[in-house]
Design goal:
Multidrug efflux transporter AcrB transmembrane fold; alpha/beta; 58% helix; 30 helices; five-stranded antiparallel β-sheet; single chain
């Protein structure tokens, strides 16, 4: 992959203006689609198949007056007098509300058939109205008209307040906090680069990526039900990872420029090295977010896929638009000191003196400190993380209700007013529905059901008990004693459902369900809680697999997974401190304490997994590289940490700044996620990756890099730090000196096919237009060599180059240029099919020379002429032979070729 990224980087730098123009054009096009389609987002969170959702669906079909979105108007007498004194004004307002489009019913709270709920002192009354659209789909015009009517209805003697589900906003309150987060990121980038110009580049590319993603979501929302929180989550992630990914690549580019590299060469190398790590980091986040589908929860799957698409687009921007911008700015990105030294030395940097010593740095001092007594460091980390995790025991989950809306909004003010004047249960009524089609006395059955429900614990009162117009369905509206997220309400839902079977038997009714927004919220929370463990196992298993591929070690993945769990535990613990205990509520603009949004844990686990693996790979891969080159385990930790710690520090601080900015948005749906991610990244980067990880590696020493031989042979090679680029550049230098060759081997070692052991090391080169006979009586040896030349086997080590393509990075390209002719295949037919402009870069591989000789014998020299033509046009033919020395078939070929010098034997 590194060689492909190297070529991509140089191409983007060459086409720099066209690439930037293409991205800006895409931004404009997607923006036009968003404006033209005009989609809206949903605030409705549902899980098909749950009892609460099935009840809502049944009401919509059989009792539409109770199944749509509900609203409330609270009338309060200002002087404490009876609200009845204002009946005329209240009746007039409810009549006006009933005339609004999409309002199905809006009875007067003084109607004898459907009286409104009164406060104990009769100074306040609740009027109900019902809309004809489902929960979560709000026509803004109708809601705005109702709100305006209520605002205009108040007089000097009484107030009117509108509330209920209709005011559950789908708008995302972006504000100054998010802007401050980006400004902090810009300051950190300026400090890292010591220049303002390069600091702006990651901000620009991140904004472009987020802009395209968010506008695309707006356009897609016209046809797809997308939760409103999706855009905020995508914007938060897109900004964070977009800035970080650009930082990784840009910092490598400037380092290389400071060492005297050519601009275009440095751009290619930056993508080949840091770009590989960016792809791996983005891939892990995408896999984790898309993996949310295993929960079986549709809205969570949509959120995960949308967020994953935003992250994927951030990767694409970093690999295309970023190198184009680096190409446009050219020498302006080279550090001033390097520019001055180059100018003073005639266009080249002076070589460092023999006595040059590495500069002292905080990173080197820190890693020496934490690895001095590694066992003590590990113990301190465990104690510290354990202390932060203790509040997890008090972390409660629930879907947010109107009580979590920002203070000062109509929805929040009305919610608080109802709780104060009438009781918290009136903000979360429960609906008990039953099928009464088989009863002969529907009113009597409804009354009995009402009495049974009213007798249960935690029931404050029965607000309504009535059959529908067809008298085949009954609804009992239950007001609980507690609020929508109180434990007593959850207990009441469980007791109602536990009593359903008995009521069905005693009252001769069926399909008793407990539904309503409160019950649906409880069902969603339970479903999410049940999905948490399977998703955690998926994420941890994925981390073990991916890191085993990258580091070819047993202990490194285990240590990384444990560290990830440490970060998750600390994130959840601190979130509980802030949202449950109320700590730091003022500085963080948190208005409400109580249960956090129920999908916070699973979403944070998915996102934090990708970010944690990012830091792990970026830090530890450099340590592994140093260990492979030197064999010094302790020194490798110090050198690898010192080299990459500054960039990881900056990346983590930027992410924390962005996430913290979203904490201050005041939106309770997003605040817990932002708090958890900010804390999780902070702990993961500085406590886990920069403290715990070096200590564990120091404690394990060389054993940290141990991998069983059988597993090493089974795992494919994954290059996430662009190690393959060194081979590409070395092969380019070799080609400049020795010329182009069709096949080049340099200390190449490959695993034997069909057995244990390996083939090699092999060194040699074959010029284009050569017929190479590979003699080997051992089938495994011969077949392994042929497969390696055709790109069918990846080398374990060394260089295998087919023209300008190197394995394993370019196995696909090598296979595309190779023509494989297996044993028993009609050689004449296959050779006749091989033609085209790319023959000079093609390799034809035949398993058995006997097949070639037999075909030549029966073709009246036609096949030999065809073979000669292919060789003259530059094609390279490699043929396998079981013999140790020349055989008749080989001698026949030697005698038949026009230029016998084309034939070589190995």
């Amino acid at each position: 992959m590194s060689s492909s990224l190297y070529r991509l980087g140089r191409l983007m730098a060459t086409l720099r203006w066209k690439v930037v123009a293409a991205w800006l054009a895409l931004l404009v096009i997607v923006g036009g689609l968003a404006i033209g389609l005009g989609g809206t987002f949903s605030t409705d969170i549902e899980i098909p198949g749950t009892e609460g959702q099935e009840g809502i669906d049944a009401l919509a079909n059989r009792f539409p007056e109770m199944g749509g979105t509900s609203g409330q108007v609270v009338f309060v007498s200002q002087d404490g007098s009876a609200v009845d004194e204002h009946q005329d004004e209240i009746d007039e307002l409810m009549t006006q509300i009933a005339d609004v489009e999409h309002v199905s019913v809006a009875p007067s709270p003084f109607d004898d058939l459907s009286p409104g709920t009164r406060s104990e002192d009769d100074s306040a009354v609740i009027g109900q109205f019902q809309m004809d659209f489902p929960t979560g789909s709000y026509p803004a015009e109708s809601v705005d008209e109702i709100t305006q009517l209520v605002e205009n209805a108040g007089t000097e003697s009484f107030d009117a307040h509108v509330g209920g589900q209709v005011l559950q906003s789908a708008e995302i309150p972006f504000g100054a906090g998010e802007v401050i987060g980006v400004i902090v990121a810009l300051i950190i980038l300026t400090i890292i680069f010591r220049s303002l110009l390069p600091a702006f580049i990651p901000i620009i590319t991140a904004i472009v990526g987020v802009g395209v993603s968010m506008l695309a979501l707006v356009a897609l929302s016209a046809g797809i039900d997308i939760p409103s929180v999706t855009t905020a989550l995508g914007a938060m992630l897109g900004l964070a990872v977009g800035i970080d990914y650009a930082l990784f690549i840009l910092s490598r580019h400037r380092d290389q420029l400071s060492q005297g590299d050519d601009v275009h060469e440095s751009i290619g190398k930056s993508l080949a090295t840091s770009g590989s790590a960016v792809i791996f980091a983005g891939m892990t986040v995408v896999i984790a977010l898309v993996g949310l589908f295993i929960t079986g929860i549709p809205f969570l799957t949509v959120m995960g896929v949308a967020a994953a698409a935003t992250v994927a687009l951030s990767v694409v921007v970093a690999l295309t638009m970023l190198p184009a911008i680096m190409g446009i700015l050219g020498e302006h990105l080279r550090p001033r000191r390097a520019r001055r030294l180059i100018a003073e030395n005639g266009g080249a940097l002076p070589a460092p003196g023999p006595d040059a010593k590495p500069a002292r740095s905080f990173g080197r001092t820190w890693v020496r400190l934490v690895t001095k007594v590694p066992a003590l460091t590990i113990l301190l980390v465990i104690i510290g993380v354990g202390a932060l995790a203790i509040p997890i025991k008090d972390l409660e989950l629930a879907l947010p209700d109107l009580g979590t809306e920002p203070q000062g909004t109509d929805a929040r003010d009305t919610y608080d007013l109802i709780a104060d004047e009438f009781g918290p249960g009136y903000n979360g009524p429960l609906l008990v529905t039953a099928d009464i089609i088989n009863t002969t006395d529907p009113l009597g059955v409804v009354e009995e059901l009402e009495n049974d429900v009213a007798a249960l614990d935690h029931v404050k009162e029965i607000q309504t008990a009535t059959p529908n117009r067809g008298a085949d369905m009954a609804v009992v509206v239950v007001i609980p004693e507690g609020g929508p997220t109180d434990q007593s309400t959850k207990d009441l839902v469980a007791e109602l459902r536990g009593s359903a079977e008995g009521w069905e038997h005693d009252l001769a009714i069926s399909d008793v369900t407990v539904t309503g927004a409160t019950a649906v919220g409880i069902d969603v929370t339970d479903k999410l809680s049940d999905a948490l463990l399977p998703f955690a196992l998926f994420v941890v298993g994925l981390s073990l697999l991916l890191l085993a591929l990258v580091f070819r070690s047993i202990w490194v993945p285990l240590k990384a997974s444990v560290g990830y769990l440490f970060s998750v535990a600390a994130a959840f613990g601190v979130t509980s401190m802030v949202l449950e205990y109320g700590w730091l509520n003022g500085p963080l603009f948190v208005d409400v304490n109580g249960p956090v949004v129920s999908f916070m844990p699973i979403m944070v686990m998915g996102v934090l997994f990708g970010l944690a693996m990012d830091y792990e790979v970026f830090l530890v891969s450099r340590m592994r590289e140093e260990f492979v080159h030197t064999g010094d385990a302790r020194g490798a930790i110090e050198r690898g940490f010192t080299a990459n710690a500054p960039v990881v520090t900056a990346a983590a601080l930027i992410m924390v700044a962005v996430f913290a900015g979203f904490v201050t948005s005041g939106w309770f749906m997003l605040q817990p996620i932002a708090v958890a991610l900010a804390v999780g990244v902070l702990v993961d980067a500085f406590v886990v990756r920069m403290t715990f990880v070096p200590a564990v590696l120091a404690l394990l020493g060389k054993h940290a890099w141990w991998l069983p031989g059988w597993l090493s042979r089974s795992l494919p090679t994954v290059d996430v730090e662009g190690e393959g680029l060194a081979g590409v550049l070395e092969h380019r230098r070799w080609t400049e000196e020795h010329g182009v060759h069709a096949l080049r081997l340099d200390e190449a070692v490959a695993p034997l096919l069909g057995g244990s052991g390996s083939l090699g090391p092999l060194t040699g080169a074959v010029a284009p237009g050569t017929l190479l006979v590979v003699r080997a009586p051992d089938d495994a040896v011969r077949e392994t060599f042929l497969a390696m030349a055709a790109g069918r086997v990846s080398p374990i080590s060394g260089i295998v180059a087919v023209h300008d393509r190197l394995a394993p990075d370019d196995l696909g390209a090598i296979q595309g240029r190779a023509h494989w002719i297996g044993a028993g295949v009609q050689v004449a037919r296959r050779l006749s099919e091989i033609d085209g402009h790319g023959l000079s870069r093609s390799v034809i591989v035949m398993e058995q020379i006997e097949d070639l000789a037999h075909a030549a014998a029966v073709s009246d020299d036609t096949l030999i002429e065809r073979l000669d033509a292919l060789l003259e046009r530059g094609a390279t033919v490699i043929v396998g032979s079981r013999a140790q020395g020349p055989v008749d078939a080989e001698r026949h070929l030697l005698g038949s070729l026009r230029d016998p010098r084309r034939l070589l034997a190995l």
